[in-house]
Amino acid sequence: xxxxxxxxxxxxxxxxLLTSMFGFSEQGxxxxxxxxxxxxxxxxxxxxxDPNISIENLxxxxxxxxxxxxxxxxxxxxxxxxxxxxxxxxLVFSKLLLNAFGPNTQTGVVTAQQYAQWLKDVGFLEKALGxxxxxxxxxxxxxxxxxxxxxQGQGSSQSGGMGAxxxxxxxxxxxxxxxxxxxxxxxxxxxxxxxxxxxxKDDRLASQLTPSMALVEQLLREKAxxxxxxxxxxxxxxxxxxxxxxxxxxxxxxQAVAGKIDYSVPPKRIFRNLDLKRTIWKNLTNWNPEEQxxxxxxxxxxxxxKKKTPTRMIVVVDQSGSMVDAMVQCTILASIFAGLPNVDVxxxxxxxxxxxxxxxxxxxxxxxxxxxxxxxTHIYAALVEAAQKILEPNNTAMVLISDFYExxxxxxxxxxxxxxxxxGLHFIPVGAxxxxxxxxxxxxFRDKLKELGMPILTGSPKKLIQExxxxxxS
Length: 474
Description:
With 474 residues, the chain is an alpha/beta fold. 46% of the residues lie in helices and 8% in strands.
């Protein structure tokens, strides 16, 4: 086949993808027939066109395709590469997109097995795009990043489009942010269409569910309607997700928060703290060349004592439905900081009412079970109650997590926040500590708080951790 013929066949594959994706198989019968011929010409199995078979099952039947689905589909700069290779990649990527967004996601009722299989298929799509497992669903580094690279959160915008590496042509670009938001919305829709109550009653079906933010959100919404075995399985899934996320966040906190050395405290004179290099250097004048010995008349030790100024941290979390992702992550962060020495953490959640969850701050799982998603947003009332916990403003950090769509007067709320800042309080406004998806924050507050020198944080939890570090270790 010459270049023009391959380009025509590639167009057939893409048009067939579109007709299958949107359920126009009857209107696209010609594309289906031509795509079948293309597959035959490349000596690929016809099942690669079937949107109903999972990628896992496809590879089980045809293990020779494992390299195609387990390696990233990236732009090729090799001038000697056969044109047919780009056509083969186009077919593989077509299968990946169909399984992630196609007919299997459009059924009226979603089973636990369908959901579990969808998660696996999305995992193959992540591999193809060079992502870490779970990253497109907000659980790891994004496109083109490795685990050692920091995820830039919502601000990232990848230039590589969905068609990258599949052949020549301008096409269109889908950013990582858009792809993550779409998958997050789709996952939420799949879980919403799942007969979750019935699935949770059955231990076998419940074991097929993979903990995710979308699943946790749905479980938190429905927890009041669950009982018996269904409630037990729901709690297990929430606990698994909390533990998994806490492990990641705990590492980030450990890397960021370390107290400064307190040189006013004399070092402990124990062997573990011995500064051997300094001891040798300071005693070099005692070197005896005749005896070839160094006589030490003074030992030097490392200072290890850290400054231990007690810090009070007051976390005020919006528990309205739009804030679930931020609420879960900040609740876990609060529990981690509460475990640090000399950090006194208080946790309040609010919608139109305010609830003090400080008694359970060490257990994010219990905190989440005591929240009630939904309702309005009365931020001013929450801050007034939180302010009762301030003892020393200069040694207190107040973290407000909200979308800043106040149920009352924006100006009254802003004036109150300004007065808190002027009192010496370390006020940290957070619009979204989220792992994926789009997020809306009141633009008026964005502008006004930025003028005050307190820009609203959004994106990776690392931003909040770094801000808290400034207060805790200062």
